[in-house]
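Cont'd.
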Amino acid sequence: MSGNDESIGAARARVVACALAVAALSITARASAQSPESAIRFADVTAQTGIAFEHRDGSGGQYYIMESVSAGLALFDYDRDGDVDVYLLNGAALQGTRYDPPPTNRLYRNDGSWKFTDVTEASGTGDRGFGLGVAVGDYDRDGDLDLYLNNYGPNVLYRNNGDGTFTDVAEQAGVQDGHYVGGGAAFLDIDKDGDLDLYSVRYVDFAYAKNVISMIGEHRSYAPPTAHVYPPDALYRNDGDGTFTDVSEASGISARAGTGMGVICADYDDDGDTDIFVANDRLPNFLFANDGTGRFEEVGLLAGVAYDFFASAQGSMGIACADYDNDGRLDFYVTSYAKESATLYKNLGGGLFDDVTAASGAGAGTFLDPTWGTGFVDFDNDGDRDLFVAVGHTHPDVEKWDDSMSYEARNEVLMNTGDGKFANVTDQCGDALKLERSSRGAGFDDLDDDGDIDAVILNSRREATILRNDTETDHHWIQIRLKAVDSAPDGVGARVTVQAGDLVQIDEVHSGSSYQGHHGLRLHFGLGGHRKVDRIEVQWLGGGKDALRDVPADRSITITEGEGRAAAAE
Amino acid sequence: MKRGTKNRYSIALGAASAGALLVASVGFAQPDEGGAWPASPPSGERQAVDQLKQTVADLLVVLLTDFPTDALLVGLVPELPYLHPPATADALLERAVAHNPDDAMLNRLVAEMAFGKGDYAKAISHFEKTSELSRETWEIRNRIAESQLALGRYQQVVDALEARIEHPAFPGRSHYLLGQAHSQLANHVRAVECFEAALRANPRDVRVAYALGNAYLRLKRPEEARPYLDAVRERQAARDRGALEAAAARVQPELRRAAVPVPWKLGELANALSALCAHGVKLYRASRRADRAEQLLADGQAAFRNAIELAPEQPGAHREFARLYLLTGGGPSEAIELAERAVALGPSAQNHLVLGHAYRAGGEDRKAIAALRKAAELEPAWLAPKNDLAWILATHEDAEIRQPAEAVRLAERAAALTGYRNPNVLHTLAAAYASSGQFASAAKLARDALALARAAHDDALAAEIGEQLRRYENDEPYRGVE
């Protein structure tokens, strides 16, 4: 009677209301207890590679937002010796922290047989800025691959000198891009003039004096990006003379401001030009549709990729783009923050997408912790693309207030079951996938040229992880490099169709993907039981088309623009 | 305490549900211009809050382990998510539902926890159990539908909801979920119908507008889609602008100094501890485990002493420590000292009420009456001090203290506040009528109170009222204390 007039019943009803309010409406399915059998296996070969990278996030108890989101990585052949090298971004000391020696980005040359040599100093690629995103492309058309680093602070454009060294020409090129906390970056040919333009994502506009943090109970933590000022992204047009012009406004890009992280440039609407998908953190994603001349209209809402199934703007992080169901259209997979699953947007054609995460099972195992780097990769060469998802929380102390999550978690592998669905097969992938880290960037390529795709993962505050694909199957494969003549270098933006019997697959060459990283200039197609490819067709971004017929499987080939015009005309 | 008084002054354990208020807040903070973080609350208070929270959390676990089917403890299970981190709370909740499989509320909570973790199959199972155990509601049906959508079971959603769509109470939310299922099954015409119905019910629901716009796009009717998608974009843009303005505002120096409050209030935690501890002592004593009861009491007292040492200026810990003494039959002199200190630190109605109870326990009835009068004066709409004061004024054996007319006035006001539906208050009013010689009215009200007490399954109160009723029927007033 006395003391407190509120009845237990009333209190309970109120608590239930609270519980309902906090229960996030999100589409996902947990990892199935009965996953189908998978052959996909990985081995952690980090120790034998000589890659001794250690990531530093600059943290010193002040909870600056960039600490939690660093960094991406790039897999690319910097010395054009035919194998894929590894470039890992690092954080840097922030106000209140000091490192001795200071952390730097590191470039590791692939010497074959899983041996890598640290060539950072020799190559001059050891930028000491606070690294977040990276893109790779031959912007000066001199035949070698250059690097663009999207930092907190001035960005860096490492021009490849062709002799194993690089020079930072960002200032001269006009692409330092102010003093933002950057996100991903990508080279693309916006106007099909044959040179690579540059998209630079800006996450937030940060200054130490403006820092805000979250208070979760009594715990200090990182504030969401929407608590900061967030600017529009930048688009730079390549002027062909080593410099770029900021066309953010003229192109329509600056019409929208977001909290961009991952970016991928792909022709989602099959109209022959390159469009831009930007994953925004806690804001609607952007899909900039190219009108073919380098002017863009943001159509994410109309296309159905701005929000998830329940119209929620997710904390989107990384992006993968491929045709997962072999229906001839490019789909998007977007990783996301904690307690919301990664989302699979299926391309329906006509510029429309459906969130098919639930029906496809593509969210299995991705719900609890934040997810980052990702790729559509055919790990078992069976002719459809599986998924790899890097996992890890942003808050190092998350367990103090939520013991269902942890800063370090295992990464996830989802096998494509060939019927438009995915099954989480992480448990079957071997001990390498039991490793728990707070992963961020992830890249995928065939590091040992054995015909299957390996993985490199950048882990916040820790060493990187190098995973060798040990999947044993009798499946076949083919890898295709493109050598452009008139089109954008390395065929960036080109569409490749591979037909082997009744198996028809497409892919596109992208510069910039996953979580603020880059991989996959060499396209990889699993062929299942097919020993040869009946037809390979390349639709170059400039409009030309080449084709090859009857190509034996299990090899890596290069197609030069123009060499298959006759076959293409047949 | 004399006969009858115990029930009048038992402090309801509903107080322990204050834990529901203790939802950890999330806010933003900024350093000041010198780089220092906002002034933190006094460290002693923060420590006291932390320790009380931990004690309450631990105590609830211990008691739930030893008395897993105790109705009051089970009733406090919903507090677990606020007292424990999620995984721990989840495990405790699982245990509670295992012991009480037919408790609808527990099943609902397990379902919500599972939904929040993305375990939709489990959520469906417990939502369905909830539905079986309680009156099935549209809300539960919708939660099941949401879970099925999340599992891609679209046809099941269609089957379940289409079967009920003619029901006059079919809610807008159900239309929306049904539309989503149809949309995923590529029944876009039907999806549009459902979304339009949902939008009629909730015209500003941005999710419905988004879904309707998308459904029109899939029907290749972009002109019809555009207004809905424009509305979504407009509202999103407004939100973005708001976020930008808020972010900009945060750099203004005057706003920087907004201190982050202690997210858990000490007084509420102390209240929860006194109530839980007292209930636990009662349970152990009733189960003849006196050693556990004494240990629990000692632990509770130690926690209060510690809290008072850490935050000596906070009245809540003093008040609730006093309450613990009163609830467990402890020394009234300690209770009086603590309650007097609480009133000195914060002269609130709540503190005066406990002080009144302490004086009463110590036999200082005139002081008790003064304290209760003060409590009633400070919070005129609060039932407790009115009712307790009326009881003393109606039943005191000392004619100089007894004030039947005032007792009737106070009790009538209390009864009016509760719409004559509270058995405790009617019990007091009956005593007041009897004290003023109105035995017929007293007997009638006592019968009403008895019926209400029985309906509430409050056997102890019913027995007490029944005993008083016999007095009133014999034209005899109740005299409880001297």
